[in-house]
Amino acid sequence: MLGLVVSGEATNRAEIARRSGLARSTVGQQVDHLVGTGILQEVESRRSVRGRPPRVLTISPQAGTVVVADVDTTASHVAIADLTRRLIAQSTVDIRIDAGPQAVLDAVTERLRELLEKHHRDPDRVREVVIGLPGPVDFQQGCAVQPTGMPGWDGYPVADHLRTRFRAPAVVDNDVNLMALGEAVQGGAETPLLCIKISTGIGSGLITAAGQVYRGADGAAGDIGHIRAVGGGSVLCVCGNVGCVGAIASHRAVLRGLGIPESTDDDLLYGTRVLAERIANSDPTALHAVRQAATEIGEVVAMLVHMFNPRSVILAGPLSELRDDLVSAVRAAVYQRALPLATRKLTITATQLKGSSGLHGGIALATQDIFGPAGIARLLADAPEAGV
């Protein structure tokens, strides 16, 4: 019955009885129980009707909380939401990822607990924790696998760490997978969807037509920054190979080519701010660098368009927010290289969710788990223990 309400297949007691085949008396008893435990709420419909407004069943905003963290190289974004996917609060933790997993995860945990307390959310009713990491992730084991630029993270039990801190199930995923899911669920982009994050490196996330994240056999799907670029030459990449597209076309590579420091002691986003100013002022050297990077990225995206035939390509990361130069150049390269069949209904745009797509994707992933068969069973089993 709870599954029928969550899916939207039934919004009142009569519909539940009709779709489940259960007696109305049985449905009434069980609905009363779910309302009494605080998992469901029964409210008057806002639809304009004659007479007494009908009562509808929905998930209660007090049924529990999901906590989400989107870890990046210079900072982590965190958020809490209720089980209806309503974002309650979000914040930023200024800590570099090279501080190591314990320091980052402790700082993230502390900020999330502060948000829970500030917004009067019971920490014992955290239903799931989701964290995105900027590197390859073993989704089943809940840890990063041989990530570059993340000392100490390889194999570190991130999921176990968070599970212990919050006493709730914990999920670890690649950050761009969560961004892609957020663009599909919250941004309303059509699927199949390909999200490209252009930041310190370059990564991608793929959402299938069925709305599922495609992670590959070992969680390495989407690590496109190490595909050899057309103009890569002998530029050394952090992975040890030469000519990777991430080494010549990432945000970090563009800054390095322009001689702009990525960060300073006082400003972790110094490079992002300076480049944005130069682009806004139409600095020709900066414009050329961004367009050249976009062309290299566009060559890779064109290959991915042929491989996956997405309906939407979403560009995210600092470079995607610089006027329309990046998007236009990527779009031009894709339409020039890809065949008409693959591009006739394709849309290529910059993200409309800015830096929040990963958080929204984490919230969506958490609620998918919570309202899956195993999650519903856990939710019902935990309700009496939570004193609801």
TrEMBL record:
It comes from the Bacteria. Pfam families: ROK. PANTHER family: GLUCOKINASE, ROK (REPRESSOR, ORF, KINASE) FAMILY. Belongs to the ROK (NagC/XylR) family. This is ROK domain-containing protein. It comes from Streptomyces bingchenggensis (strain BCW-1).
